[in-house]
Amino acid sequence: MSESLAIYNKAADPMGFELTPTSLHIASFVFVKRGTTIALLKANNQHYLEFRRGKWVIPAAILKIPEHPDDCALRVLKDQLGIEKPKLKFVNVQSHYSDHWDLCFIYESQTAKPLKAGNLFDEVKYFSAKKLPQESMAPDHVEVVDAWIKKQKSL
Fold it and tell me: Which superfamily, per CATH, for 6-151?
């Protein structure tokens, strides 16, 4: 397993992804758009984060050391959706705190090609950005989506 930019309290087990108030995740999130819809992935029962199993998520990953956020976003698109050589647009950076800090690099991409859910996901589906299944989404992804929607002008 490669080292990632998820920083945990020394008392925590980084392999078990135990979160503490001093934890920090640095991640890239990619909103794959098709018109006014965005692609979400449904995490399967083998997903390494138990609280995400069966939940809809935005394509995202924690950066690996010394990976650049742009490269992480490209990895997300390839590994999680099967998109090779996509056009990628950096949007902004978000910061959220609940039981740990999340520093999120936000990107957008578009593709006309069919999407293929990666190994940790059961399916990929486009949803209207105005009618997302928020009650069925991973809670940490809901706040990222809400902040992204507030910045959109054409939804």
Answer: Nucleoside Triphosphate Pyrophosphohydrolase (3.90.79.10)
- E strand intervals along the chain: 6-7, 24-34, 37-43, 56-57, 60-62, 88-97, 101-110, 121-128
- Check whether 61 has a pLDDT greater than 50: yes
Q: Half-sphere exposure (CA, 13 Å, Cβ side) for 10?
A: 0
- The answer on pLDDT for 48 being more than 60 is yes
| Nearest residue to 142 via CA among 64, 23, 51 | 51
pTM recorded for the entire structure: 0.84
How far, in Å, CA of 58 to CA of 43, rounded?
A: 10
Q: For the chain, what are the domain ranges?
A: 6-151
**Mean predicted confidence (pLDDT) in 55-79:** 93
